[in-house]
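#lab-general

N.A. 3:47 PM
ok so I finally got the sequence cleaned up, no stray characters, all 492 residues accounted for. can someone with queue access submit it? mine expired

B.Y. 3:52 PM
send it over

N.A. 3:53 PM
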Amino acid sequence: MRTLETLSGGEWVSTGDWIDVHDPADVRAPFAHVPALAAKDVTRAYDHAARGFVTWKRTSPFERARVFTDAARLIRERVDEIAADVTAENGKTRAEATGETLKAADFLEYYAGLARQGYGTLLHDVRPNHRTHTQREPIGVILVISPWNDPLITPARKLAPLLAAGNAAVFKPATETPLSGLHFARALHDAGLPAGVLNVVTGRTAEIEEALLDDPRIVGITFTGSNAVGNRIRRRLADRNVRFQGELGGKNASVVLRDADLPAAAKAVVAASFGQAGQRCTATSRVIVEQPVYEEFARLLVAEVETLKVGPGSDPATTLCPLSSPKQRDSVLADLDQAIEQGATVLTGGRADTEGERAHGCYVQPTVLAGVTPDTAIWREEVFGPVLAVRAVDDFAAAVEAVNDSDFGLAAAVFTRDLGNAYRFADEAECGQVAVNTTTTGWDVHLPFGGFHDSGTAYKEQGDEVLRFSTRVKTVAIHLGEPGKPGEPVRG
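B.Y. 4:20 PM
back already:
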């Protein structure tokens, strides 16, 4: 079994206590373990971050860009090793893990370029002989809490922009998937990131939560995970001047209109629904189909789903990986049982996959459900697994109403050949991400990302929009003196 250390204050450290890491394809024995830090270790990480921030905020943006560019190069050179660990701890296919690894490098390269540009705006000033501008500055020490479903790309999405802007970070990876985040930290460390700028806290949340969330040096928290945990963090911050960026739940819908290219729509919906076994925040979990094409689309959809090959992520032939933990597998199976009790019809799948060696893993058959209503729990609540529910509606207006009849508002898609309906859908869908004739998943590094309603907070991720979270705005007015009288201020 491999033993890994964690990064704190520029050094790789361990403790006498360990957290085991399991492969969801076969959970019988752990394959690695990482340090289980205690509360005092978390406080020490904040000590390092506070000192690191003082150095890093004064570091040239060109040097920050150099560190990021070198770290991206290292990730690309180590892609096979990193992708193997992403697959081993998360379960996703090797192709998905490789894509995630390369995308993490993309984030570093994108924000290296953005760091070089500088952030600010030249403004006109009503006073004569004045030049006024805004400049964006780092805000300080930010706590980063990332989930298990995208254990490398989510840390990259969060850490790259805040570090590029000059902030320091304490980073808590998911307990189930710490190796991926440690790979990201190692690339930055090896590229020359100064000590203390990034500190990785591997530990059991229940044992370190108070030290993690209540440190007075925190100026911002960026979190991806469940609504229950996100709302608990928000309540904890209610009387503190701490920014909170949350990417929370989703119940994403794809709409198939009667004029859609049905085979292409079926392929896109299956890719969006069953990639990473449905464990994506933007995964399609609801399909809304206009009544005249419902039967044909349902047939095409089931046929496409039944081509998926369930297996371990390490098998190149696998197209549907296991769920990421026994806990997640059991949660999805409980949701399926409830849906069937509430009247849903299973068109394909519907149970655990325990065939052969898969009996030792966290496998659930790819599932399509019909016979659901707007009140069926599985239509309204996030499942986060390989489960897709399908409903028929009468027309475009009813389809938009069904999309918006949700507490969430992360992503939605429409499939149509009518450009007018495409634009109307983009205008009327209550979601932060809208796709036309393509998947609800797959938003690139430069595209602002985040949801409406219960899917997230006002601070977006990705692109330059993320700077609203990770920087503060300072307005600077400079009096140039009267023409011909250098340095003499205007009187009166």
